[in-house]
Amino acid sequence: MLIHPIKAFSDNYIWYIQEETEAVVVDPGEASVVLDYLEEKQHRLAAILLTHMHEDHTGGVQEILASHPECLVYGPKETEDLVNRVVKEGDSFDLLGQTFQVYESGGHTHGHISFLMGDHLFCGDALFSAGCGRVFTGDYEAQYETLQKFKRLDDDINVYPGHEYTEINLRFAYDMHPENKKISHSLEEVRELRAKGQPTLPTTIGMEKEINLFLQAETLEDFIELRNARDDF
Questions:
Q1: Which residues pair with 14 in a beta bridge?
Q2: pTM for the full model?
Q3: Neighbours of 178 (CB within 10 A)
Q4: Are 141 and 100 spatial neighbours (Cβ–Cβ below 8 Å)?
Q5: pLDDT digit string (tens) for 160-173?
Q6: In what order do the strands lie in the sheet with 44-49?
Q7: Alpha-carbon separation of residue 162 from 108, 185, 227 (angstroms)
Q8: What is the full DSSP assignment across 60-89?
Q9: Contact 36, 67 (CB under 8 A)
Q10: What are 145-163's pLDDT values in tens digits?
């Protein structure tokens, strides 16, 4: 099993999950980069997974399906116009010889979901390294509960967010807590990776517990204050 990020737009990652000659892609906002990669590798696209409805995560679906009409598409109800398998919290399905479990992870959008495959979590915009998605719904309680759900996962779970936001998130965290050595060290490492054009992802739940201020928020009120500060950063 190989998991590879395909870059899209300025900072999106489309996660490409490969098992031998079959593949699954997560949140293909752009079609051409996915189709080119499939053609280069000569892989069969078994399925597309969608975490939420935003165009930068779904925009490539129809064009990909035009070339791969047999492909299954899984996603939440808010993406029902694009999918042939609507899934919700507690559902599971098998692809590439692996079981994918569906977790409700609302807040960024009302119907946002995440997919857990073994020790790999594909979480769209619900969780970023050192951050989380903007709460466009205004439902801060849902986003806070989503983070609590992720926090209960095993520390060794690998986390695959949909955007390369790690550096700006760590800059915010450092601005809030300049005395925190773990945050400052992580920021240095991330700046070195980005200077080389390398991704900072995946991260892990264990790492996020140490550097992600949003996961560390002890109350809903603390989370709201932190999210508002990050929105203005």
A1: 6
A2: 0.97
A3: 9
A4: no
A5: 999 999 999 999 99
A6: 2-8, 12-19, 22-26, 44-49, 72-75, 85-86
A7: 12, 23, 18
A8: THHHHHHH-TT-EEEE-GGGTTT-SEE--T
A9: no
A10: 999 999 999 999 999 999 9
- Asked if 162 and 133 touch (Cβ cutoff 8 Å), the reply is no
Question: Span 74-81, mean pLDDT?
Answer: 98
Determine the residue type at 24. V
**Cα angle, residue 109 at apex, residues 140 and 100 outer, rounded to 5°:** 110
